[in-house]
Amino acid sequence: MATTNLNIRVDEELKRQAEAIFAELGLNMSTAMNAFLRCSVRYGGIPFELRIDKPNAETIAAMEDVNNGRDMSRTFDSLAELLEDLNA
Known about the structure:
- The protein has one domain.
- About 55% of the residues lie in helices and about 0% in strands.
- About 0% of the residues are buried.
- It is mainly α.
């Protein structure tokens, strides 16, 4: 398979951010672009989403509460006790 160069102009900050994400995924820019182009051709459009899930502020706060034992519900010895508390 013969290869060719593809030159594109992108915002410098966008390139830096994309390279950081691709690096976390174990890809370099060339590999990521080749994967995108191949899948685009097969799919006939934009085929997929590669992303790193980042929890929002509310989720981070909830995880910190759990890790630090804050704002936890009390425990119950039976289902009846739990239902009684829920219905109170």
